[in-house]
Amino acid sequence: MAAIVAATEDVIRPYRTSDFPGIPRWWRGRLVLVGDAAHATSPSSGQGASMAIEDAVTLGRALRGAGPESIAEALVRYEAERRNRAELVVQWGRRNAAPKIRGQFKRVFEDLALPMVFRALSRKSADNFDWLYHHHIDWGTSSTVGS
């Protein structure tokens, strides 16, 4: 690792991220958007791949057994099941991205304080992020929208 760092010519500086504007519909005809194409979230959320996998599983389940004439109905179900969660994760990522662009003073302060904060948080018995990390998709039939 030290050799890689020593061989690096440029330091990667913090950069601003831009939110992908929400789109009114994730499908048209037989074209379907999943993952970042439908609902890009900030890289700081760390949820891009997870959200794409959730989309793929939900889309597959919605399309299971759908004939050509019922594909549109399946796509409506897919989007209805995923949109609310995806938009919540995008909002969460947006809120968490802004503080990550930091100046020198803030960087030093956070580097000293964050280890103590993370230790304190790890001792908490209840995980406030269950909604994000413990999302469950029923592999059986489509779930009811809004449940």
Give a structural overview.
The chain is elongated. The N and C termini lie far apart (47 Å). It has 147 residues and is mostly helical. α3 runs antiparallel to α4. Strands 1-2 form a two-stranded antiparallel sheet.
**Shape by Cα distribution:** elongated
Order of helices and strands: HEEHHHHH
Mean pLDDT, rounded to whole units?
80
In quaternary terms, these chains amount to single chain
- How many alpha or pi helices? 6
Major sheet: 2 strands, antiparallel
How many beta strands in the DSSP annotation? Answer: 2
What is the rounded distance between the termini?
Answer: 47 Å
Gyration radius from CA atoms, angstroms: 20 Å
> Approximately how much beta-strand content do the residues carry?
under 5%
Q: Report the helical percentage.
A: 40-55%
- Structural category is mainly alpha
- Uncertain segments are 143-147
Strand neighbour order, sheet with most strands? 1-2
